[in-house]
Amino acid sequence: MRWHEVTVHTTEEAIEMITNFIHELGAGGVSIEESGTLNKQRDTSLGQWYELPLNDIPEGRAVIKGYFSDTTEMDSIMESLKRSVEQLADYDIDTGSPTYELKEVDDEDWANAWKQYFKPLRISERLTIKPTWEDYQPTPEELIIELDPGMAFGTGTHATTSLCLRTLEKVIQGGEDVIDVGTGSGVLAIAASKLGAKHVLAVDLDPVAVSSATENARLNGLESNITVKLSDLLGVLRESEAEGSEASLGVKIPVQVVVANILAEIILLFVKDVYDVLAPGGTYVVSGIIKSKQDDVEKGLAEAGFTVTECHEDQDWVVIIARKL
Ligand SMILES: C[S@@+](CC[C@H](N)C(=O)[O-])C[C@H]1O[C@@H](n2cnc3c(N)ncnc32)[C@H](O)[C@@H]1O
């Protein structure tokens, strides 16, 4: 099958928003490539480090590709996309004078092209992400996350994902029930489980993410430790309570840890729901927050009753650790 490939050359800062736009316009898949230079400044405040594969994308820049079926009328798609990207300036998101390309490609080209950049990635002292198709010899202390993200978000290379992974490594002590909101490829749910969580409920609004996370949980032999559900934020909790089917969630409410790597605007929509679902003493690990939105999210967390205990940054992105005291 032939596809229309739309390429946007932009900044790392704009990745999440532009990816969302492309999905909303009906793309069958999106691929993201960020700068992979090894001399990037990294936040080491969590006392850890990680490695990135190399590519030739300049520091701070990113290349986003969206794929639309060959029956799509592309003029209006390109127009809407450009309009939405222009409007990001209103939200202080720097898109770096984006440029656009449109061409036709074969199915096989785009389904596999991104794989050359996805290599085993040591995220922290203990967590390493390994693409399923790569060979890797771990050291005895490493926990390996086998991953084939397909078209779902979450290879671990994005700053927000790695910030969450490094934070989970500190937060998970063993035996917790955990909810991962916006699980994408399931990378955070799998990490939580490998770090010792008792059970993880992983939810996502996107059916592609739900099947990717389900498959990745299986690849890691964690299908009985991770329950993946299609859900708009924590909606599945309300539905299961109404139906009396809470047991199907796998976790016992209230839980000890919630992790969410979603845009700040979405995080603010369900802060109170997270507070209600956490046990006293529970921890909320929240990322997907661009630095300019950090104050808004901290304010929302405080209003819901949380105490912010730590914040860490990487490339303009922030992870916040909040506790329900
Ligand atoms: C930035 S990705 C994070 C993926 C993965 N957790 C990671 O850390 O790499 C955000 C995910 O949130 C999902 N999402 C966005 N809005 C959502 C909503 N209202 N309810 C559930 N999931 C949502 C998206 O489909 C996407 O998979």
Automatic annotation (TrEMBL):
Organism field: Paenibacillus vulneris
Q: Matching InterPro entries, A to Z?
A: Ribosomal_L11_MeTrfase_PrmA, Ribosomal_PrmA_MeTrfase, SAM-dependent_MTases_sf
GO CC terms of this entry: ribosome
MF GO annotations? methyltransferase activity
Catalysis: reaction(s): L-lysyl-[protein] + 3 S-adenosyl-L-methionine = N(6),N(6),N(6)-trimethyl-L-lysyl-[protein] + 3 S-adenosyl-L-homocysteine + 3 H(+)
Location (main, coarse):
cytoplasm
Look up the record and give one Gene Ontology term from the biological process aspect: methylation
Protein name, as recorded: Ribosomal protein L11 methyltransferase
Gene for this chain: prmA
Residues that bind S-adenosyl-L-methionine, according to the entry?
161, 182, 204, 261
Q: Which residues cross the membrane?
A: none
Query: Where can this protein be found?
Result: Cytoplasm
The UniProt similarity line reads: Belongs to the methyltransferase superfamily. PrmA family.
EC number(s) per entry: 2.1.1.-
- Which UniProt key words apply to this protein? Cytoplasm, Methyltransferase, Ribonucleoprotein, Ribosomal protein, S-adenosyl-L-methionine, Transferase
Q: What is the documented function of this protein?
A: Methylates ribosomal protein L11.
